[in-house]
Amino acid sequence: MPASKFRFHPAVESDLAEAAEWYEAQREGLGLDFLASVRYRISLILENPQRWRSVKGTRRALMSRFPYAIVYREITLDEIEIVAVAHFKRRPKYWASR
After folding, report:
1. How does pLDDT run across 65-95, given as a tens digit for each residue?
2. Residues in contact with 55: Cβ distance below 8 Å, sequence separation at least 6, in sequence order
3. Of the candidates 10, 35, 8, 9, which has an alpha carbon nearest to the alpha carbon of residue 20?
4. Any residues with CB less than 8 A from the CB of 58 and at least 6 apart, and which?
5. Are the C-beta atoms of residues 2 and 74 closer than 8 Å to each other?
6. How many Å is the Cα radius of gyration of the chain?
7. How far apart are CA 45 and CA 59, in angstroms?
8. What does each C-alpha distance from 59 to 49, 51, 56, 62, 74 come to in angstroms?
9. Could you give the domains of the chain?
10. pLDDT at 56 over 90
11. Phi and psi at residue 66, in whole multiples of 5°?
């Protein structure tokens, strides 16, 4: 069953901004590409929130172009919470207390 809405954990916006700024500093436009990839992956999550495996109450949707995962949990049948947009190798599980 598709979810109709999502919300970010309050700390996610700074995660996104930090990553987008880093990519933009590497190459002009790459930060925008990163954000577009995040939006696309969230749209896939909303279409089928249970598509990705559940581990201790959260799910991780891996991004294809960037080494990041969108970590989320289902709040209700029609709402998910994005807990983190986490790099695969930097600060593992820094978001776990969220």
Report:
1. 999 999 999 998 899 999 999 887 765 555 5
2. none
3. 35
4. 71, 72, 73, 83
5. no
6. 13
7. 10
8. 9, 9, 8, 10, 9
9. 5-87 (3.30.2310.20)
10. no
11. -115, 150
Indicate the residue type of 12. V
What is the number of residues in the chain?
A: 98
Q: Are 23 and 85 in contact (CB under 8 A)?
A: no
The token duo for 68 is 């990041």
Q: What is the pLDDT of residue 97?
A: 53
- Report yes or no: 3 and 48 within 8 Å, Cβ to Cβ: no
- Taking the CB of residue 81, how many other CB atoms lie within 10 A of it? 17
Token output for 24 = 């933009």
Contact 36, 19 (CB under 8 A): no
